[in-house]
Sequence to fold (239 residues):
Amino acid sequence: PPWTLLLLPLPGGGSGSYGPDQSPSETSVSPGQTVALECAVANVAADKVNMNWIRQSPGQKPEGVLFFKTDLSIYRAPGIPERYVPSRDASNKKFLLTIRDVQEGDDSIYFCFAFYGSAGVQTWGEGTRVRVLSDNLPQPRIQLFPPAQEEIASLTCLVSGFFPGYIDVLWRRDSQAQAQGVRTGLVALGEDKTYSVSSYLTVPASEWGSGASYSCVVKHESLVSALEKSISANDCKRQ
Fold:
């Protein structure tokens, strides 16, 4: 039968009162190696469970990987190669997704989705990030913009050119963490296959005018240490 990706509740939802125990939460692997993801079920025999594997990368829609039926038949989504191999350990109530000869494009978060029973119980795992290691990851660039108007001081930090799309963007005021007034958008994948994201910090105009220094701090797996860029009202006056 053709592959069908159902529109399902978000991870953590579903009609079941518990979800599969998925592990590890993150695993790092070099290109060419093999990685195995584990999904353990409870309160039901494993041979009664149909298991879907779904993945999602930042800025992209969920993508079906494969469907592993109770009779051990396998239906792979279009474009998913045979090096993605599901298996079942019925005695330990565990399901495995083994990815052989890992490639850069395998970097994503993988979710197991179990459904079973006449009532159609549906439960999600919490997801496993497969992190494909590389020495040549594109590093983020920071552009920091001052407020466009004096009444409301809203600073903009544009971070671009990074891959993969997992990133932390933080703000500091005079070297102190600033959480209030922060709003960070969703990462977006560009045509050049790198990601970008914008973060905004809104502060009282009086604080901005006092000359305090505001910093946008970026943490990404391509960086040995955090990347930081600062701006203040005094800097803008000197320009």
